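2024-03-11 09:14:02 DEBUG pipeline.ingest accepted 1 chain
2024-03-11 09:14:02 DEBUG pipeline.ingest length=288
2024-03-11 09:14:03 DEBUG pipeline.predict start
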Amino acid sequence: MEKNTSASRTILFQDLGILLFMLSMLGAALITGFSEKALIYQQVVMMLAMMFSALLTVLRARVAGTVLTALTLLAFTAYKLYNRLAYSVPIEWTAFLWPALLGMSLGGVTLFISFYSTIEGLNGILNKRLDELTVIDAVTGMENLRSMVGSLRRYMALSERNGTSMGLMMVRLRYAEEIKKVLTRTQFNDLRHILADTVQHALRLEDRVFSIDENGSLGIIYFSVAAGAPIVKQRIISVVQQQNMVPSLAGQTLNVEVSVVFKEYESSLGKDAMKFISEVEKEFAYEV
């Protein structure tokens, strides 16, 4: 809950930063567009200075952007005061808007970049861990969902390049929540381990099995033509029905059923592993 609130707050501040910058640019554009001809060059220079300051901040040169904004305000103030005192030129009312617009622009861009850098840093760490670490599920001893995403992305790229037939299959326990209520935690973990082991032994050596959640669900990256996937599905269902999944239930019988769905890889998916996983999960809606 706290993580979701923190993420929402970060996105809110980013949006606020962009809004401030857009409003400042809109104000600068309106001032420039409706200015008298004698002031047009002054307004264009101020608008360009504001844009250049924002550009420096976006390029992570925040100090340079801040200094440029300060120098622009100082030079503009000195220029207007000099004209007023030396030539009695009245200071137009729009001149008082420029300090606020410059501050809004700099503040908005700084706010956006600050929180964007935070998210960018976190994403960099997560991607690095995804690429460098193989995370193992403690119950089944298999690689988990994070590892499957990385592996799936690589196999999708290989399939696209070499034309290899492959697909993603998912195995899900039917009535997992009800089974959890009947079994102890230890018994349910034993069920997960036996299910994963049973499915793994039903597949070929080149097919990869992953434990993708705590409800016993499995992900399988298989290498087969489209016609072979239904055969693999029936084989999994058959071996699961024949296997005693909870041997600790002495003198009792627990019928364990699984739902199995699959989808062949298509080139339109590219290397988007998350989209591929989502497409396969949608197939559960049609599985009876």
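2024-03-11 09:14:41 DEBUG pipeline.report The mean pLDDT is 86.
2024-03-11 09:14:41 DEBUG pipeline.predict end
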